[in-house]
User: Fold this.
Amino acid sequence: MLHDDYFEYYERLASWKFDEFDISSECLTEWDLYKILRSLVSEDSCVLDLGTGGGEKVIAEYPECRQIIATDYSPQMIATAKRNLAKSGRTDISFRVMDNLKMDVGEELFDVVVARHTVTDPAQIIKCLKPGGHLLIRGVDKYDCWGLKMVFGDGQGYSDPVPQSIRDYENVISAGFADVTLVPICERDYFRDRDAFKGFLSKVPILDGVPDDGLLDEYIARNTICGRIRLQRQYYGITARKNDRCRKS
Ligand SMILES: C[S@@+](CC[C@H](N)C(=O)[O-])C[C@H]1O[C@@H](n2cnc3c(N)ncnc32)[C@H](O)[C@@H]1O
Assistant:
């Protein structure tokens, strides 16, 4: 999908509920974004959450602290997030529209910047972190749902010459971060039946377009385990630290 197509997609997605697909997940890798976040955040911390979506994760999973600013380029997502915040009772979070690729927050403001399943520009992120501040990225990699993408011969990142994880990793290092680690994260999602699986694939941008029935059945025949359809997920986690010696230029 092109940048503008993604924007339209996320504007529509703001009112969708993924609970309807009843997905159960199994994590095969010990890398927990929220556990790492909790270890870095104190009650005095300021946190920036990039590409926050409807705010579900930041509201439910982020530790309470002095201030969390959560941003997204989709006004519809931010409207959903504000509604979710009002129901939550949390007072340390505020939401606003911002493009991650044209960040307009001030310099050296945040102790931690988090970007979960969204695009990033580490060269912009490093400027808004305090010296010694941390960057946490969790992303979806080229080899996510690879068995499915191979059956269809297309999909998100299918033809990327370099996986997104490696591009992010290199960009984080190039931006000047220290202590950069990249961890592949393997998970398995299970769907109760074909309708739930097809409905999910029709809404997410894993494949290019609505899945063809014949190819879908081919995949399901090979990936049904104990009556449930399995989808192999491949994510990545990046942690990095802004050097203490970095100063505002
Ligand atoms: C898959 S959702 C992830 C939402 C949330 N971070 C989570 O983990 O549940 C991706 C979000 O990134 C946002 N996004 C994509 N490109 C963006 C950009 N250039 N600037 C800001 N937000 C962006 C989308 O609008 C969407 O809400």
Observations:
- DSSP finds nine helices and nine strands in the chain.
- Strands lie at 24-27, 46-50, 67-72, 93-97, 110-116, 129-140, 178-191, 224-225, 228-241.
